[in-house]
Design brief:
By secondary structure, this protein is an all-alpha fold. The protein has helices at about 5-15, 20-35, 40-55, 60-70. This is Addiction module component.
């Protein structure tokens, strides 16, 4: 499949979805695409690890962290 056909197929799928989480993820990919090109390799690897942790549900919600560390702030 050539690039143009691939873009058309992706555009169709994008227009057909109502999944807000998926749309947000796609938006993040587009926003960060060019930023990551200029980063050192170790930073890119850290970003990838973080994204995997997030997708695996290994994050602690902000409000829980704030409750735990409020006494230090």
């Amino acid at each position: 499949m050539d690039v143009q056909t691939e873009k058309i197929e992706l555009a169709k799928r994008l227009l057909e979805t109502d999944d807000e989480e998926l749309l947000q993820q796609i938006k993040v990919v587009f926003e960060n695409h060019h930023v990551e090109e200029n980063l050192p390799e170790h930073v890119k690897e850290g970003i990838q690890r973080s994204l995997k942790q997030a997708s695996d549900g290994l994050l602690t919600p902000h409000d829980e962290v704030m409750k735990k560390y409020a006494k230090y702030l």
